[in-house]
Amino acid sequence: MQFGIEAGRRVSMTRCFGLRGQAGGIGLAVRLEGLGTALWTPLSGRVDAAQAEAVWCDERCGLEARTDLWRVGPGVWRRQDRLSNRGEKPLVLSRCLARFSFVASHYRLYSQDSRWCRENQAVWEELTHGERVLRGVHGRSCQGGTPYLCLADNDGGHLVAFHLEPYGNWVMRVRCVQAGGPTLPSLELDLGLSDDDLALRLPPGEALDLPPVLIQDAPDGLPEAAAPALHAVTQAQAPRFAGGAPFLYNTWFDDFDNLDPERLLRQAAVARELGCEVFVVDAGWYGHGAGWACQGDWREKPDRAFRGHLREFAAQIRAMGLRFGLWMEPEAIRPGAPVAAGQPSWLIQGPGGMLWPDLTQASGREWVRGEILRLVETYGVEWLKVDFNSPIGPAPAGDALYGYYRSWFDVLDEVRRRCPQTYIENCASGGLRLDLATLAHFHGHFLSDTVYPIDTLRILQGALLRAPPGPLVAWTALRGAGAGIPEYGRPLTAASPRLLTPCGATWEHSDTVDLDFAMAVSCAVNPGLTGDLSSLAAGHRQRLAQWVEFAKAWRAWKQDAVADLLTPPRPLEDRGGWVALHLRRTGDPRSLLFVYRLDDPRGEAVVSPRGLDRDGDYRVTPFPEGPVSALSGAALLDDGLRVVLNRPRRAAVFVLERRDG
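Request: output the structure for the sequence above.
Response:
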């Protein structure tokens, strides 16, 4: 792949990223207050095999634009645009978007629907006319859609993926441009900071870095084929936690916000027995008022939960050999919270009736940072689950929350520097703020509020198109059902103990689950446990302890792993077929192969891993047990591995290790 050079040294899309482009195919769509019309600015500049740079200036107002593109990995380019005010008067931007244009052809658009408990759901659309607009609103980058799309050229069989790193609300707009007559439409793609009521002020002498864009070629025209190259580039953005993510137990799916200290101590004892390392108390511990929705009042409840003795409870947890963790939602403030009593100027009314802190003001930043640090220091918090359930905005600065997110990331970075022993997890009603910009500021990222294993698997497939596996966090929620559920073919008196798991984000609907299947799903990333561990039968506890030990053995390794999606992402409602993931590291002799049979009538499948040494010999070891086999790299790559699973909703995990000599 290469950038072409057209007349006037314009940066073009000719043969770039596998899609055909037209002269002037890379530029900026800029609109300035007072100048009336939008400006389409084709960029000209220096181009070579590994980078391109271009500078443009509007002499009428002194606005200068600089665009840099450089290759950051095989098939992956990064685009960074900077706008500078070289004039003498302030400029107000109502649009400032990166633009890519493409010649007439038959195109399809691949994007993701993303909602609570339905994150990262793929949608294909034919592009024949009109305009398709994707947006992030209310500060929630993955609510309604994700900042990611692919354009496929049906005629050429090529596909290119665009990943926006959002700083605030964002927009991605694909427009079909009809030239008249029976010709096919050409395409224009604009993406970046949302231009919905944008009025971004740029004073003289100042510069603005627009949200970066990653552009990548998708081999064979498949979105999932692009995932490993993206992971290799983006995994370096995620902050490292020494040794990898601690293995956690979270209280939420035990009894939600009904926190009974004695009951929780029983859960903690079992968690420690299983090998868990951190015990996280979720919502329900804070606020002077009924229920758990007392955000902004981060005092302990005096009349419920720990009744003012949370510090003593944390000490008991540590005395059991576990670290202590806590949930909070620092960006949401109820109007009745003590901090709102004086109506400080940095508190703003949000669209959902909640207040939110304007972090562009020093007082707002100081309060949020201070509350986070106070909780960490007061209770010895070593896992902080940071949630984000309430919408925020509109931004008083008219900047689509650009300044807010720059300040929010600064707060997070400072907390990480000052609290290096604390693992900081990103949650937003599940995965509704899991994006490439946020990836760089949290240690871990919660996948979804649904813990149903098949849901988790489908959501994970979509997430891996946009993020590496190393920072992702998924729970296994379990509750013992005893031997009261009959099994066909044996009397009730001989029925074995069964396990239940929620069929979503609550226990209202639940399903029996195979422990190995549930753990194989969450162990593809960073697993955690939740639910009623004290109700588990002894045999289940023993088996679960094996999985915990397995996860701990591989967690540091996963921080540098890429994932091959060996089967394409499917919709959440699709319960059929097989799913396979291959986690590997460049140059490492070991890799992990995860294979799942869903509601499929076939009892076996052939799975072909990727990235192996064709000339090497491999030992294939099933986990937790099974016969070890030896296969050549060529056989695994060409013929695949035959996997037999005799019942639906079962899984197999294999360690592939290249043998020396």
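The two ends are 37 Å apart (CA to CA).
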